Amino acid sequence: MQFTDIAVNLGDAMFQGKYHGKQRHRGDIDDMIARARNAGVTRQILTGTSLKTSQQMRAYAEQYDLHSTAGCHPTSTAEIDKYRGGEEAYFSALKELIASDLQTKRIVSIGEVGLDYDRLRFAPKETQLKHLPRLLLLSKEYNLPLFLHDRHPEAHRDLVRIMKEVGFGPDWAGGVVHSFTGTVEEMKELLDMGLYIGVNGCSLKTQENIDVVKAIPLDRLMLETDAPWCSVTTGHVSFKYLPKDLVVVERVKPEKFVEGKGVKGRNEPADVSSEFLKADGQVVLIAHIVANIRGEPVEKVARAAFDNTTRLFYPDQVQDGKDVL
Q1: Which three-class secondary structure state does DSSP give residue 103?
Q2: The model scores a pTM over 0.90
């Protein structure tokens, strides 16, 4: 089985060994990426959440032979008006980054963009709404799929409305709503727009979440970790769907860092071991849980999710509808 983790926040300080502003251990990005590849996570898409992190993720993608997104997370949109030179200068710099990559194609998506009304302390609703249309239109301009954030029922309504207003449709490059936590009805509305649905630990907390996962068509499903966030915990309804043969790798506190071991409180694409596989990844764990929820073989779920991500983010690697890898 091969896996694509469509959401990895590699720029988070935890991967540099920093927690709550304190250095607890050395940075271990090299180790984390190696563990993921050993686990069958052959692709990772690094999430750009601002101009700076989009630039940083593009550099990491080049360094580690991965891919990335470029955009501005809704909770980061307040930085656009504060940027030296203002909104025009910000978008000019973002466009310059995307345009400079058109040949190397490390940037495979416009994102993370969307709306988040749960954390308005970071960016007011008005600010998010002001900049969303222009961010969405980058997808049309550069023919790149959207990597979307949709958090809060009212935000969902506004996101759908604005996407329709800017003309999102079949002639665009498509998109995925990642870390989906909405209702079945909201999910179906996104499907009707031609979008994919990304599932991680945060998508599997409640019984309502479980019902959504059951209802996602297999040809619209994607898997992710949103590392270092969104781990599956014992308090999640999904925990009971964890296969008995999968055992969480021993993890230690950040200040007691040990080579080769995981870190407590930090999710990463490779974070689970199995008596059948030398190293399963967290995204592999998500695949097992989703498969058990749906009553389908994990190989079927894994293959579908991998093919879906190929069609959306790596269309050059598809021939006659099949992944050429």
Answers
A1: coil
A2: yes
Bridge pairing between strands 272-274 and 22-23: unpaired
Cβ neighbours for 278, distance < 8 A, ≥ 6 positions apart = 38
Query: Is the separation of the CB atoms in 313 and 67 below 8 Å?
Result: yes
In this structure, are residues 172 and 140 in contact, taking their beta carbons and an 8 Å threshold? yes
3-state secondary structure of 236: coil
Q: Please count the structural domains in the chain.
A: 1
Domain hosting residue 84, numbered range: 3-316
Whose tokens are 């860092």? That residue is 257
Residue 255 in marked binding region = no
Task: List phi, psi (to 5°) of 174.
Answer: 85, -165
Residues written for the chain: 325
Is 178 part of a structural domain of the chain? Answer: yes
CA distance 25 to 37: 22
Does the annotation place 219 within a ligand binding site? no
CATH number of the domain bearing residue 200: 3.20.20.140
- Which residues have CB under 8 Å from 312's CB, separation 6+? 145, 174, 175, 176, 196, 222
149 is in an annotated binding site: yes
112 is in an annotated binding site: yes
What residue ranges of the chain have pLDDT lower than 70? Answer: 245-250, 270-281, 319-325
pLDDT score for 277: 40
Label residues 244-273 b or e (16+ Cβ within 10 Å = b): eebeeeeeeebeeeeeeebbeebbbbbbbb
Tell me if 278 is assigned to some domain.
yes
